[in-house]
Amino acid sequence: MDLFQSIDIIGLDISDYSIEVAQVDRKKRVALFGRGVLEPGIVASGKILDKPRLAEQIKRVLVSTRPKSLAKAKSLKAIVSLPETRIFTHRFEIDQSIKGENLKNAVYEEVLKIFPFDLQKSSWDYLVFPPKIALNSKINPTQTPLAQPKNTIVYFALPKDIAVSYFEVMQNADLVPYIFESESQALGRIMLQEEQHYKGGTAILDIGSKNTILAIFDSRKALSLSVTIPIGGWDFSEEIAKAKGGISIEDAEQDKCALGFNQNAPDNAIRPILEKMFEKIIAETKKSISYYTSVFRESVDSLVICGGSSMTPDIDVFFRENLDGQFPVNVQLASLDDKVVGSKGFLNDKNVPAILFSVAVGLAMRALDHDDLTHRGINFLKRMK
To answer: What is the pTM of this model?
Structure first.
């Protein structure tokens, strides 16, 4: 059987700067991929400014996918990441005994208390996670009984007009809008090992071109905190270009990728520039880990760095130097080859690093769950109408 013909679902990641497409086969191998850079004025801060141009750019990426073009694909379903900058996330607990329609009503009532915009004008969904520790059936009857365990609810919402705009673009690009979810959920799916048991939380730091997303998942792999830091790779390159007398962004990017945080490189003038730029990311990372630890009473054991700027030389060393002591976390660089079997065989173009496809592959991986696919996990399309 031709695996390419048997799969009709793609992962589609759209940012202000680029489009990434990925498709995986049933053996969790990247079957094909494509990427295109967006011109300014098409998407800004996650908001679509020019729907026709974005739809046209998506079509061009589908034509150029490798090793096989999707140009002639019919009824292709798209699992799409909606912009993290536009998504509101709230985590809270509800008694385990509340189920069904009563649970949905209880969730609705809870978020009404703190929600920043009109629920009637939002697309929303939520996940339910069981208690971390089950009731101890061997407790002595004379002891005070433990409190009724509570389920953890992770609620996601964004303005409905954002979801509608992405829906319309998908249709204009001749795609079937199938699942809309958050970038952080897709990252968690690809970066957290499905079969691995986690004792503590895991922080995923995705350093993109315009924004940096910090998402912390607890030991059950439940998203507990998501923070968007308004700084990214483009800002780093701009600052380097400015500091070096107005060199081109392209040259600044080359310097950043060649030298980065490398302390051993002689006369590395790039490191102090980056250190200054990363102060905000380090501060927000420390603040978020402190908040998570105090509120959820669980340590953060690992920090996984991904996104385009994760390729900056010695960035992991820099984070260890700035977190160790206060936060003894295991800092590691994400590798897509470690997460998806066979990805190196397809994503081996030095000009298009595999790590840029993290979100797209994470989205595509959801296609492997055929158990009521559109209703497992977050799907903003459920209540978009």
So the answer is: 0.88
